[in-house]
Amino acid sequence: MDSQTTKDMGRSLTRGTNPDLGAKPLSPTERVATIEVARRVRLDLRALLDALPERDRGASAMSRALGIDRNTCQRLVAATARGDADERTLVQLPGIQGLRQFINAARERVRGDGLADMATSATHSVDRLEALIEKLAGSQRRLRQRLEASVDLSIGESAAPSDDLAARKALFRAAAAVVGRWSESQVTLSMIRPAKGDPSRTESLIVRGHVGHVSRSSAVPLEIGFAVDPRLNCGTRSGENESPLLEAFCSRPTPQISSRTVDGRRVHAIDPAETARVGPCDIVLMDALRSDMHPATRRPALGEVWSLVTFPVQKFVFDVYVHRDIDELCSASIEQHLWSPQIMMQGFWRWSTRFPGGPKLGVLGQGISAAQTSAYARHAELTRHCFDLVGWEANEFVGYRCEVAFPSWRAGFCMLFDFAGHEMPQNGG
User: Fold this and answer.
1) SS (H, E, C) 85-99
2) What is d(CA 174, CA 56) in angstroms, rounded to the nearest whole number?
3) Which region holds residue 75: left if phi is over 0, alpha if psi is between -120 and 50, else beta?
4) Distances, alpha carbon 255 to alpha carbons 148, 311, 397, in Å
5) Cα–Cα distance for residue pair 363/372, rounded to 1 Å
6) Torsion of the alpha carbons at 421, 425, 428 and 429, rounded to the nearest 10
7) HSE toward the beta carbon, residue 427, CA cutoff 13 A
8) Cβ atoms within 10 Å, residue 109
């Protein structure tokens, strides 16, 4: 075999074009790149789909309204309806030409604030997708061959830097040394149900806790915050001046706490001298019962529940219980983001902050029989207490859990509930 033949064969293998020797599996680095591109293109296309009139979002209706091929619309709807995107999404989508036809047709069909930005963002995403396909395989069909040659896609994503436990442990140690405080466990518990008498709204409760919390006297202050929207109909459990502490789950002596509302957040500051003096302590707070728009009325139709790792922790437990009437309309997924001022922006504009890889979402099932966790001995007791406190029937709820050892400091974990295909009119109309 001469040197030129060897070179040609090497190029064919790299591009996945040699049918005799088979397609070359994606490397871990290539696979992470495909997932990143898939997530961004899916989110941008879904934003455009949601901007269409509701009657035009089905494949057949979209084909008639936009004047593009029905098969293009069918593949587009199917690929963007999933709760998340991965490398498989890239071969489920229409071809590059079909995607550009859709973007241009949507730009002509829809008028309104933000549409031009959506279309521009979607165009950039498709440009990145086209460049990736060319780099990895040369065509969408050949990319499919490379994906099929890779490891079993049902296993999930390949390892990414944020999935490296040793790296996260090292980050915990460094962060704890710098900020001067840390917790054995951080607990977030949220419960959400449709509002009584108003199907266009929900009511929810959220609890945050730091268990086994220790600090130095010179540590940065410990503050625990809850989002506040002045447009919402928020109340408290019994009165405006009631302490947010769940004292039955706090250490003795009960920590001194001061509260204030600043820039749309209710912030509770715990006296740092106390946490340094008494040693490991438990601090558990409950927010006011709040009302919000039902996620299915939003555009895009997404519900998001966040838990932020503001101080280093060894064990992280994030539970969300959604009423079965909500759960049957949505698909749930979990995302991990790098903290930034835009992290809480709802919807599709956070693709650049998302960590590759990340935690998996667990399903606890109906009721709270699976609420126990080794991360916090009293977690099941706390969950039952919260349901009893607001008088909600736990068996009417379905639980989801994200549990991580040594979660990345300053990361935000977002549990996302996607109501694609189950949107309801805005404002309940």
Assistant:
1) CCCCHHHHCCCHHHH
2) 52
3) alpha
4) 56, 18, 32
5) 13
6) -150
7) 1
8) 17
What residues are paired with 415 via a beta bridge? 305, 334
What's the token pair of residue 22? 């088979």
Look up residue 128 and give its two tokens.
């990145």
Q: What is the pLDDT along the chain (429 residues), one digit of tens a residue?
A: 444 433 343 333 333 333 334 678 888 788 878 888 888 888 888 888 888 887 888 888 899 999 999 889 888 988 887 666 777 788 888 889 999 999 999 888 776 666 777 888 889 889 999 998 889 888 888 888 887 776 444 444 445 667 888 999 999 999 999 999 999 999 999 999 999 889 899 999 999 999 999 988 788 878 777 765 443 443 344 344 467 889 999 988 887 777 777 666 677 877 655 555 667 889 999 988 888 999 988 877 888 999 999 899 999 999 999 999 999 988 888 888 888 766 655 445 566 777 877 788 899 999 999 999 999 999 999 999 999 999 999 999 999 999 999 999 989 999 989 887 677 766 544
391 CB-contact burial (10 Å; exposed 0-12 / middle 13-18 / buried 19+)? exposed
Every domain of the chain and the residues it spans: 3-155, 161-428
127-148 as b/e: b if 16+ CB within 10 A: eebbebbeebbeebebbbbbbe
Neighbours of 9 (CB within 10 A): 14
Write down the architecture of domain 161-428 according to CATH. Answer: Sandwich (2.60)
Compute the distance between CA of residue 414 and CA of residue 71 in angstroms, rounded to an integer: 33
Residue type, 413: F
3-state secondary structure of 368: coil
